[in-house]
Amino acid sequence: MFAADGPLTLDAIAAHLPEQAPVRALLEEVETMYAARGINLVRRGNRWHFQTAPDLFHILRRADAAPRKLSRAAIETLAVIAYHEPVTRAQVEEIRGVSLSKGTLDLLMEMGWVRPAGRREVPGRPLLFATTPGFLAHFNLRSRRDLPGLDELRAAGLLDPLADALEAAREEQEEPVLNFGEASGPGD
């Protein structure tokens, strides 16, 4: 695993171990053994790899890697894809309520966080988008299930109070209003 050029699946690891070896149990034992060290064994989706411990990452990161600041549109698009994947461009636009520039998806794919994930089986066969293992690694997530829920986002103050008010107003409009004070019908 130290010499691998990327994360390995259980099958790839098992190919290097004796037959009938308890691969998952061995990996969990190594994960525990390395937890307090400068390098950790981590699982991203269905793949395993070693990475620098989070408390040492800032020391060992490359100095030439300039952080990229994502636009609000890119952040919103990434969030929609992460929470709703696989999703089409039209679905992203519908959820966000605005059209999406082509450059936004290109940027997210260039960063290695979003990938094409096939085509939807509907007329026109639109392209589907999903997150990548690079997305999980960058945000230190084991899987998409580790994404914060609405309650956690609200508690952290990351949801816009105006958006919450608009959502409440929409819910009120959807409720049918019965007005018994006015007569309506053919005999009126």
UniProtKB/TrEMBL annotation:
The lineage of its organism: Bacteria, Pseudomonadati, Pseudomonadota, Alphaproteobacteria, Sphingomonadales. This is Segregation and condensation protein B. It comes from Pacificimonas flava. Keywords: Cell cycle, Cell division, Chromosome partition, Cytoplasm. Signal peptide: none annotated. InterPro entries: ScpB_csome_segregation, WH-like_DNA-bd_sf, WH_DNA-bd_sf. Pfam families: SMC_ScpB (PF04079). GO terms for biological process: cell division; chromosome separation.
